[in-house]
Design a protein that fits this description.
The protein contains ten helices and 22 strands. By secondary structure, the chain is an alpha/beta fold. The strands form four sheets. Strands 1, 2, 3, 4, 5, 20, 21 and 22 form an eight-stranded mixed β-sheet that branches. The chain has an eight-stranded parallel β-sheet with strand order 6-9-10-11-12-13-14-15, sandwiched between helices. Bound molecules: zinc ion.
């Protein structure tokens, strides 16, 4: 049955439109009328809220105590927690792990994808650089194994949407070509590659930079490294963990407003942390602390990821890095949706899936979420 929503302000076509009536029909956005008046049966959005598309997170590993690698029930809880915070489309990420454990996790995530709860699977590793592995366990990082990769793709029944690998590894370019042929996004990350090696990977079809600036060497005068190759290619979508910690706020601003030729996209890189307690827990069997939304290893003070949903990243990008809100919303919605091939997401437009976030215009907190035309009612159970 059709439902209508009336709002003072809605982000449509890159502009904030006023006095908007949106028809929701069978989970999709129907007719949109701008500069109109509401009707008595329409749901009235509070005037404090701006209506934006639901967030699309393509790099996320869990939430609270739950991880996408920890079985069906845990993965489902993590998804619902993100959904209640505005992430209406989510690709579940797995880090490098034991081969059998990865196979089991792929099988449960394929089921969750089949049920429409998540939007696919992302493998971060295990074919990455030992030197740049970050939070990945050394024992699980492997040389490129095309047979294993094709086994996982087959097992996932087409649900693996993206794989991160290091292009300098032997066989990596063949793996990138294989992924692209199979319709999977090849991402470059956790890499020690040179500028030239990175360019070759992009020429082979790699199209995403995994958390740009993290898990890769910095930019130096005589070593442009992977960073410049990724930033300057119009074919590459660059993931930014724009929390103000993983990338300096000034660099977030520079990347988004000036430096990136391709598409800047925001990701949460949100981790599920094991163990009790809100402030100290475990990642990869190492103690971590929570610090202003970042997850930090206790032994060396290095960053492991975040504990933030994408809505938290959006807020940080605006409040800490000074990104314009409309640009930030694009980087958290249509940018990642296009990158991963979710064609009917990330925009408020007739025919798109009815995924909406009611964002408080002042605090930038998520007030209410609609997914597939239904209001999300899950409680914020980890708060
Ligand atoms: Zn990573």
């Amino acid at each position: 049955m059709a439902e209508t929503i009336f709002a003072d302000r809605v982000l449509i076509g890159g502009r904030i439109q006023k006095d908007v009536l949106i028809e929701i029909d069978d989970g999709r956005i129907g007719e949109i009328r701008i500069n109109t008046s509401g009707n008595s049966s329409a749901f009235r959005v509070p005037s404090s809220c701006l209506v934006i598309p639901g967030f699309v997170d393509i790099h996320c590993h869990g939430f609270g105590p739950d991880s996408f690698g920890a079985g069906f029930a845990s993965a489902r809880r993590a998804t619902l927690a993100h959904r209640a915070r505005g992430t209406t489309s989510l690709v579940a990420g797995l880090v490098s792990s034991d081969t059998e454990d990865t196979s089991r996790a792929i099988a449960s995530l394929a089921t969750l994808t089949g049920e429409g709860i998540i939007d696919g699977v992302f493998l971060e590793g295990p074919f990455i650089s030992v030197a740049r592995r970050g939070a990945h366990r050394e024992g699980f990082v492997r040389p490129v194994d095309l047979g294993l990769l094709s086994h996982w793709l087959e097992q996932s029944k087409g649900t693996i949407r993206m794989v991160t690998l290091a292009p300098e590894l032997s066989g990596a370019l063949d793996a990138i070509r294989f992924l692209v042929r199979e319709g999977v996004v090849a991402a470059i990350g956790h890499t020690d590659a040179t500028y030239e090696e990175t360019r070759s990977a992009i020429d082979a079809g790699a199209s995403v930079a995994t958390h740009l600036g993290n898990g890769m060497p910095s930019l130096f005068a005589r070593q442009p490294g992977p960073l410049l190759a990724l930033m300057e290619s119009p074919k590459v979508s660059c993931e930014l963990i724009a929390d103000g910690r993983h990338v300096h706020p000034c660099l977030v601003r520079y990347f988004v407003n000036h430096a990136i030729s391709g598409v800047p996209i925001f990701v949460s890189d949100c981790l599920g942390v094991e163990g009790e307690g809100k402030h100290i827990a475990l990642v990869s069997d190492r103690l971590v602390e929570m610090d202003d939304g970042a997850v930090v290893f206790k032994d060396n003070g290095k960053l492991a990821g975040t504990a933030l949903p994408l809505s938290g990243i959006l807020k940080s990008s605006v409040t800490k890095a000074g990104i314009d809100l409309i640009t930030a919303v694009s980087a958290a919605t249509i940018g990642p949706a296009r990158t991963i091939g979710l064609e009917d997401r990330g925009k408020i437009e007739t025919g798109y899936r009815a995924d909406l976030v009611l964002l408080n215009g002042t605090s930038l907190d998520v007030a209410r979420v609609m997914r597939c035309g239904n209001w999300v009612v899950e409680k914020h159970e980890y708060e």
